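SAMPLE LOG
Freezer: B-3
Tube label: C17
Construct: single chain, 526 aa
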Amino acid sequence: MTSLHADEAFLDHYQFSHDPFAARVPGFKFFPAQRKPVLGQLHHLARYSQLLLLVCGPLGSGKTLLRQALVASTNKQAVHSVVVSAQGAADVAGILRQVAQGLQAQQSEPEAILAQVGQLALTGQDVYVLVDDAEQLSDAALSGLLALAAGNSEGRPHIFLFAEPELIARLEQLADGEECFHAIELQPYSEDETREYLTQRLEGAGRGLELLADEQVSAIHEQSAGWPGAINQVARDTLIEAMRAQRGAARRAGFAFSLPRKHLLAVAVVGLGILAAWLMQGRPNDTAPMPVTTQLPLDPIERPVVDASASGSAAAGAPAIEFEGGNKPVPLPLVGEAQPVIREPLARAAGLSGVEEADVADAAGSSAVGVLVDEREAPPLLQAAPVAQVPPAVAVAPVSTPAVPAVQPAPAVVPASKPEAATTTPAQAMAVDDWYAAQAGSRYTLQILGARAEDSARAFVREHGAQYHYFKKQHQGQPLYVVTYGSFGTREAAQVALKSLPDKVQAGKPWPRTFASIKHEIGQAR
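STRUCTURE (predicted):
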């Protein structure tokens, strides 16, 4: 997860104020376990030893942090520290040039450097030369540093090398049996120290060790072998894997069941409304009308003879079935007054790269435009007139049912009082973007809601005050208007302001985000 959106999704999922396992974090405190004794030993040897000092450990063992702690813990009035790196300047000339620049010496020759060290000693200042990544130094550069550490009559600097363990063998070959350096090897953390280290890192980001189970802590210690750099990487990977597993399980459970309860309730209400409308239309009469006949008396004495002509006249005079209201549509009653749906930003629930929001008509459920339900007219109800009784001795001729005229659906009902939405001019859109462009990218704001219709976002901002603004972005190929609140220097300040918002605004679950991510989305929408 290297992109801006992925990092924000990770921080937002666990509610971190910053990445607790980054190499450099705000307000980081030096972890004393296994390192504080070494720090005290370095100060002691720098004061009383004449040897070059080597601190060694594998990659990620905390050598750089120890070097920073050594510089930070020195008395600035009594010690002049020069920090150099062997990366890109591993030869003797490059190293001596960096040392001379740090001491403001006119030349980079060893004699000129030692002379400058002597001048600082006259003012009561010792010189510390700290070399990071010293394993990359050439043999000539190591020999030059050993010569500086020995010093001369004018002065002697204290040389500290921070390197990986293989440098010990190279220094021993260059020393040729002489005692000219002292090596200190860093030790890994125990499992209890790993637990304390993770606690310090997580608490610095606003959370605690409860995010990790005991089994996870043990696995982190085992995989990292107790080295702090590896602990950071393994712990971060563990939390990211747990986040992905939780979201993957939610997706497998189905989209419908992953919706918030209030959204499921809204879907159920709409479904019941559609069912009720169908029932109120009336079910079609699938049963064909039975022909009406008259039972004639079976009298063996008198049997009237029916003349064919009489039968025809009777059939011709039989009343036909009539349909009343054939062209009168019956209006379909409204299911119920539709309500706007408030949705929590899907950046929390779905983990998208840009923190995406669903359509929202009005987070407060107040004056924003709600969902419109078209009012359709039902097909006409067919009513049959009563069939006349056929007198005895008269046969009933079959009657054909007239075709029912097709009913044209009535047009959708449009609310008469709905105001015409004002069209946003380019000058207005530019003014909105200018407000966001004027904000520093490191500052934070509270994202309140997102709406497909710009009228909804504008109405919300107009109702709630000048601290609310909105901007336009692209979501799934369509414009989305996102409402934000305020501008804050830190995430903590934004979270404090969130608690002071009205309850109906907090119901949409606002969340803090940086102006840098907003500017990125505005740029993509143009």
